[in-house]
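Protein: Serpin domain-containing protein
Species: Photinus pyralis
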Amino acid sequence: MRILVLLSTGLVLTFAQNSALLQEFIAGNQRFTVELYKEVRKGTDGNFLINPLSLQMIMSLALIGESDEDFRKIFSTLQRPEATLDESKEMFTQIVANLDKTGDSTIASANKIFVKKGLEIGEDLKVSAVNNFKSEIDELNFLAKSSIAKINKWVADNTFDKGVEMVTDKSFSKKTKSVLVNLQYFKGYWQKKFPTRATKSRPFYVSETVTKQAELMEVSTNFKYAYNHSLRAQFIELPYRDSDMFMTVILPDDKYGLPGLEERIDELFYDQFYYGPKVRLVLPTFELKSTVQLDDALRNMGMEGAIGENSGNPNDNKFQVTNVYQKAIILVDEEGQVVPAKRGKIQGTPPWVEVLVDFIADHPFLFYLKSPGAGVFFIGRYVSP
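Structure follows.
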């Protein structure tokens, strides 16, 4: 029986009944995240943001329509635990129901598969797209300007980001069979709010030759914090309100040391020795928007021959993934719950010790959003205001 990927987004859901499967899922998500980051950073010098979990989801939908050979390549690259088709469909239905809201954090998502007019689409793919993946399938003539406009309008309408074109008339050719588009927006509310009065314009050190002004927030309170001497980097966890999701910020000691840290990205997901000191945290406010075409990255990761214009038989009308696009937006600002004046201690900090640590993110850093019961939701880097 054909197998499909299992995905979770913050709630353990039915995975809780099988801890072994859950651990396999989380481990696979982490491996996929690392490999995807390595590929995407190759062609990107500036800020970027990707959502590994969401990409796994839309690629899982595409699996339903793929041939057996392509299925194996895609499934292997996604590094997912196995389950029957029916079990996967049921799981995805539960997952999608929880995608739009996690506690006070807003997670808006949209998926769509644009296919060439006349392409053979199996009924199972059509039904699963709507019922299990909260997705749509739309037929287009990819060579028509009106189709390009239609795709860009759909992206703009679902991200509230007008005036930015995801695709142009040079994006497709007569070989284009299907285009997968995945959109994600995240706005969270911190457990511990940054006081707006402390936000100031300060220098942000982009490179040895470039310094820019950035709006930097500041708060002093207790956080989960770790220092890795081997990586020469600080780690801090910022929890979101009414959610198990948190953001981890990883800051190299060297102001211009992010590239070296990225070379060792696998180690960033090793267990760190966190404790709970009082931290003076300085962090930029930012709205990071990133549009990435991912088919090259996915081919390099193991999907060669399974996706792209040269995959399959260009002369038949069978479903084949040609292009994969993802647009992700994350908003980071001061909003959250006001930190009470009475100082408390995080578990792990001896009550007789008052530790003050400076975490000054005034130079490029890496960050990711994660749920302990699901895996990595977003990962990205911030290098310039």
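Remarks: The mean pLDDT is 82.
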